[in-house]
Amino acid sequence: MILNRYERMIAKRYLLPGKGESFIFLVASISMIGVMLGVAALITVMSVMNGFRADLFDKTAGLNGHAVVQGYGGSLPDWRAIVREAQATPGVTEATPLIEQPLMGSLNGRVAGILVRGLQMKDITGNPLIRDNIVAGSLANIRPGSGEVAIGARLAETLGASVGAPITVISPQGQTTPFGTLPRSVGYTVGAIFEVGVYDYDNAFVIMPMADAQTLLMLGDSVGMVEIVTNDADRVQDILKPLVPKIAGQAEIRDWRQNNAALFEALSVERVVMFWILSLIILVAAFNILSSLIMLVRAKTRDIAILRTMGASRGAMIRIFMTVGVTVGALGTLAGVALGFILLYFRQGIVDGVQYLSGQNLWDPSIRFLTEMPARTDPVEVFAIVAMAIGSTFLFTLYPAWKAASTDPVQVLRYE
């Protein structure tokens, strides 16, 4: 809308409180605060949910890849050929053989469920998610035959383990006797402790060289699976389709959607529901702007009549009152964007402060999966939220602006 000089002047006067109009100004201010809180809440919540999904996916894919070729019976004897076939498949960037087996670990009478993962040394030292998150010890201590392993930080807390501590891994696949199979216990030393930030991994993973895992599980030269990373996680099924007939009868392919279907589907549904619920805050604030404009039009009926008799057109009245309403909404929206980014910047401190004051653990990593609250802001999403806030404000100003333009100056001046 393009306003001339006198229209801008009148709109500016109507935005500021006049004599006897403090209540209208109060309602308009509350409306602006409502828009601000709604926009800030939407930006904050959507960014946190985006960050939660992105961090969870990045860390899950960093340790589990985009898909795994799982051998029937938990064994892949011909894994080298499968690795070559996978690496030759267009779109595949990495193919990593590994062994993964749930077992039991103990230390000084403490027992915990663990997930033993055997990897080649180049894959242990080359994985940035492990290499860059060592909190104690060093990966240099872990070598085939050294008897040293890397364990998650939460698992170390559960067992009371530190670097250099001896832990015992208990495997049900042991020596066969006339009385049945005896569990097999093998002692290892903690060479490194890592914390990737995903509770389930930090609470269970025991990483060791592949040769040691093969010896522990009596697999010979076999591995359990081949982990695959592609150049497009969303097209993983299409990319790996040519590989399916080449491994038929030996293994099956499971991608990240199948392995984490329930979790990521729940996150998607929750994200949509939260968006629409929080959008109601903006709509309520827009209704408040509507009500404040109606009261303003009612209070300024005589002024409108005088302006009309002085030559102001209906279009001028519409532009003036629409400018007043949209300005309130725009100021609230801009303040909401600023407040949203401030909340995101201090999000972890806010959570810690609320936890301290309330005495409640609001971000339990055993429930939330991640140890810290993440955030990832999508500029397109922020633009959509801003457009929705200003757009709804614009729509709710149409009726009071039309009502002001429809004022009959003859009738008003006759009775006033």
Estimate the strand proportion. Answer: 15-25%
Low-confidence stretches: none
Give the proportion of residues in helices: 55-70%
The chain-level structural class is alpha+beta
Number of DSSP helical runs: 17
How do the strands line up in the largest sheet? 2-3-10-5-9-6
Form type: elongated
Report the span from N to C terminus: 32 Å
Q: Radius of gyration in whole Å, from Cα?
A: 32 Å
Question: What's the main sheet like?
Answer: 6 strands, mixed, barrel
- The total of beta strands comes to 12
H/E order of the elements? HHEHEEHHEEHEEEEHEHEHEHHHHHHHH
Average pLDDT, rounded to a whole number, is 82
Labels describing this entry:
416 residues; alpha+beta; 6-stranded mixed beta barrel; elongated
Question: What features would you describe in this structure?
Answer:
The protein is of the alpha+beta class. It is 56% helix and 19% strand. A 6-stranded mixed β-barrel has the order 2-3-10-5-9-6. The chain has a two-stranded antiparallel sheet with strand order 7-8. The mean pLDDT is 82.
Q: What is shown here, in short?
A:
The protein has 416 residues and is α+β, with helices and mostly antiparallel strands. Helices cover 56% and strands 19% of the residues.
